[in-house]
Amino acid sequence: MNSRERILSAINHKQPDRIPIDIGATPSSGLSAVAYSNLIKYLGLNLKNHVYDVIQEVTQPEIELLDLLKADVLDIGRFFNTSENYWHKLELIKGYPGLYPKWFNPVRQPDGSFLAAGPTGENIGKMPVGATFFDQLIFPYVNSYPDNFDNISHDMSRVIWGGFGFPPYDRMGEKDFWKLLRETIIKERSKTDRALLIGVGCNLFEWGTFLRRIDNFLMDLYLEPVKVHQLLDKLLENHLDFLAKICESVGDIVEIVKFGDDLGTNTGPFMPPETYNEFFRPRHKIMCDYVKANSSAHTMLHCCGGIYELIPELIEAGFEILNPVQINAINMEPERLKKEFGSEVTFWGGGVNTQSVLNQATPQQVKDHVKHNIEIFSKGGGYVFNTVHNIMPDVPPENIMAMMETVHEFQ
Fold first, then answer.
1. In which band, very low, low, confident or very high, does the pLDDT at 370 lie, cut at 50, 70 and 90?
2. pLDDT tens-digit map of 39-82
């Protein structure tokens, strides 16, 4: 099998020739800039460090590393930032210089922190001293909801997740962007047998928390349901307009369309299934149905946390793939997930606990942990190896290679 066939086989719940691998195709289960820098130094590779997700400080791995690690999938955004003029050098994390998009120009403050301005000119992100990512500064609806949501696009641009776009969407304002997107992906697809993934976001719950702040929005689900429905209806309207452009331009070219909505914590979902079903499942289903009716792509949801109770509802909503499969959260044991849902959804992740194993264990303990997980998840297909969220700065490169060697050796 080639990489594309391997990924599609797994998604279709057929046993591929080996476990498909994703390293770095998404900014929420990829490589932090620090971990990447340490890894390529450890391997003796002279590669550049392109930090394409400036909020989480996540790197776009070079093809040479992806070849070495036998990765089977690519994020199509990487095809839009190949010009050297796109990048400039910054050192935001001491000792770890990287190449950042030229539109990103954070300003160092007297106390050593960094402030970064968004499209409106306001400072919308802050990297505190000693941190390795940017925090959100502005919550546009923190005090109250507006009378209407006519200006929601502007309001979303004041949030780091809307103001600091990553490729290809940071070029979306350019003339003929959608035409360029299609032409570029057709051209690049002909050069690779790897599967292609496009992230579309289209978050619902998370945009409520970004705009209103999470404490307020969680209470609003019970105290302000009318306003929540109005907000979600407007978000859905905008998301469907966006998905129409995605499907028209690349819906017949990419293999995976990745949505995002973090619905859980280490101790369980943010809400019971009844609340998810009232506010979010109908709208998630509308978006999934649209993608399936207007493209050949498969639907992935990036959803962190202990979401065991919500998985049946997510499947009903139309998500075919779940990522990053947070096996260290409550009720998210590989055995339980594979037994109960393994025939209905593809698990894209869950290969290694990045919260307390990959960063703290010995290489042999990492190997044992990874082998245990992939032995369970990989049976009968329906599995793509990936870490539980990003490989963080405190992860030793020896442990990354122990993880990958275990996957490569597994038959």
1. very high
2. 999 999 999 999 999 999 999 999 999 999 999 999 999 998 88
Look at the alpha carbons of 103, 57, 37, 258 in this order and tell me if their dihedral is positive or negative. negative
- CA dist list (Å): 250 to 22, 178, 224, 290, 297: 21, 9, 38, 14, 9
As a whole number of angstroms, the distance between CA 230 and CA 311 comes to 25
In order of 204, 271, 349, 356, the CA distances from 262 in angstroms are 9, 11, 15, 20
Nearest to 73 by CA among 202, 259, 251, 198: 198
Kindly report the number of other CB atoms within 10 A of residue 89's CB atom: 10
- pLDDT category, 166, cuts 50, 70, 90? confident
- Overall pTM > 0.90: yes
Q: Is the pLDDT assigned to residue 165 strictly greater than 90?
A: no
Rounded to 10 deg, the angle between the 397-409 and 33-43 helix axes is: 70
CA distance 215 to 270: 11
Cα(189)–Cα(4) distance, integer angstroms: 10
Tokens encoding 19: 């476990």
How do strand 96-101 and strand 87-93 relate by DSSP bridges?
Answer: antiparallel
Question: What is the spatial distance between Cα 357 and Cα 335, in angstroms, rounded to a whole number?
Answer: 18
Could you tell me if 6 and 72 are in contact, meaning their C-beta atoms sit under 8 angstroms apart? yes
Q: Which tokens belong to 129?
A: 């001293």
**Cβ-contact 302, 325 below 8 angstroms:** no
Q: Which of 348, 407, 339, 337 is nearest to 382 (CA)?
A: 348
The tens digit of pLDDT for each residue in 306-343 reads 999 999 999 999 999 999 999 999 999 999 999 999 99
- How far is CA 30 from each of CA 33, 160, 323, 349, rounded to the nearest angstrom? 10, 19, 12, 11
